[in-house]
Write a structure and sequence with these properties.
about 450 residues; alpha/beta; Rossmann fold; 3 domains; five-stranded antiparallel β-sheet; 16 strands; about 45% helix; binds zinc ion
Length: about 450
């Protein structure tokens, strides 16, 4: 059905669902202490496209993505602001769902919260202690990685090399610098749980093991996330599971980084872009288009010019959909086999080759437009139907109304209020500002409408 690059194997392999039941996908969700950025957006869209594709070929998918709602970063942010950590987590979780909805991502079937799975985490850590793979250090319970068979599988490096590359940890109680914390002891005045392990909080790597195996059982079909999660996060999730004797994920899928202005996006480089900034400036679909134009394992380059280009590509697709709208809806024109979907599926099956799949679709749009111009109705309609179906699978739904930048809408709303209060000076000033942004505002009985000043609407004929 589908071939994907499996990080545990290091090559493209056939991905088959486990016999019977839904195809189970777990991808690591956000730690909710800040606004989602472009990297988060890429993660959400990559797994959204995978899920939509599988569903389009009739696979029943069960998608789980967690919310890390307890973490040192959440606690630090809460201290900074003098509020309860739960308040921070709730605030940023709301921002998270708002963003993923704007991106048109299907919500996961389940979104477990770490704080609701503490008992299961304590159980996992207790069993690891009981079997002698974990040990108590000064500030928490640690996993001894040397005791885990095949540690380094996802890093694709032997243990000795990983140990050599690890930064030297000051803590003398650690048996290896690679050993990682399963349960952190914390002072009694900090947020934590009183458990048989001691008062404390779970380690991040333990959270995902508890939630994924808690919901799916000891094995599931696909575990994914960004390349930065492959090691140590996913390696350490897998290590706990292997130490407990569970097979864990059958396949591992990782997507590449986001580069802004030619450099990996990071706060320290000052090229950090939140999803909020992106969707306020550009049609929210444009980021999905940028994500799909790159192969999921390649770095994703984001610049204003590329985003602008995506916006005009979307406008082209929207115009196409509008132009052929009546023909597509015309039942008297029959459909024939044109091979657009067949070609689309062939590329998608091969490690989700979205860049080539999209290039083929754009070529088909040109062909369909030509067929339409020549009055070849059956061909034009058949191609349009298949193109629109493939675009829907990618989550790129075309629109018959134009998207308008937030800055323009905001000024039009302010202008409307100014008009209502008779402040004609402000209303005129805002009209010129809107014109400078390339839009015309028109007043009608239903309120204002906006259209681009440089676009002449193209109707059939
Ligand atoms: Zn995780």
């Amino acid at each position: 059905m589908l071939r994907l690059f499996d990080s545990a194997v290091g090559s493209v392999v056939d991905v088959q669902g486990n016999s019977g039941g839904a195809f189970s996908i777990y991808n690591c969700g956000p730690t909710v202490y800040d606004l989602p950025h472009l990297g988060h957006g890429r993660a959400v869209l990559t797994f959204d496209i995978l899920r939509r594709y599988l569903e389009s070929v009739g696979v029943d998918v069960r998608h789980v993505s967690n919310v890390t709602d307890i973490d040192d970063k959440i606690i630090a942010r809460a201290k900074e602001r003098g509020v309860d950590p739960r308040e921070i987590a709730a605030q940023y979780e709301e921002a998270w769902w708002k963003t993923t909805d704007l991106l048109g991502a299907l919500r996961p079937h389940e979104a477990p919260h770490a704080t609701e799975w503490i008992d299961q985490m304590v159980d996992i850590v207790s069993r690891l202690l009981g079997s002698g793979v974990a040990y108590r250090g000064d500030d928490g319970v640690y996993l001894e990685v040397e005791k885990v068979e095949g540690y380094g599988l996802l890093a694709q490096q032997p243990l000795a090399d990983l140990r050599h590359g690890a930064r030297v940890e000051a803590a003398s109680f650690k048996r290896s610098p690679l050993d990682f914390v399963l349960w952190k002891f914390v002072p009694s005045d900090e947020i934590g749980w009183a458990t048989p392990l001691g008062y404390g909080r779970p380690g991040w790597h333990t959270e995902c093991v508890a939630m994924s195996t808690g919901l799916f059982g000891h094995t599931f079909d696909l575990h994914g996330g960004g390349l930065d999660l492959r090691f140590p996060h996913h390696e350490n999730e897998r290590a706990q599971s292997v130490a407990l004797g569970y097979p864990f994920a059958r396949h591992w899928m990782h997507h590449g980084f986001v580069e802004v202005g030619g450099a990996k996006m990071s706060k320290s480089l000052g090229n950090f872009v939140t999803m909020e900034e992106m969707v306020e400036k550009f049609d929210p679909r444009s980021y999905r288009l940028l994500v799909a134009r790159a192969h999921y394992r390649s770095p994703l380059e984001v610049t204003s010019a590329l985003a602008e280009d995506a916006v005009s590509t979307l406008a082209r697709l929207d115009r196409f959909s509008l132009r052929l709208h009546e023909l597509v809806a015309d039942d008297s024109v029959e459909l024939c086999e044109v091979g657009v979907l067949q070609e689309f599926h062939r590329e998608m099956r091969q490690d989700l080759n979205t860049p080539v799949a999209l290039a083929n679709l754009f070529r088909s749009v040109t062909e369909a437009n030509t067929a339409f111009d020549l009055g070849e109705w059956v061909k034009a309609k058949s191609q349009a139907v298949e193109i629109l179906s493939a675009l829907t699978t990618l989550g790129l739904v075309t629109r018959n109304v134009e998207w308008v930048p937030f800055a323009v809408v905001q000024r039009a709303q302010d202008r409307q209020r100014a008009r209502e209060t008779g402040d004609w000076g402000t209303a005129d000033r805002l009209r010129s500002e809107i014109a400078e942004l390339g839009y015309l505002v028109e007043d009608g009985p239903q309120g204002f409408s906006l259209r681009r000043s440089d676009v002449v609407s193209s109707k059939k004929g």
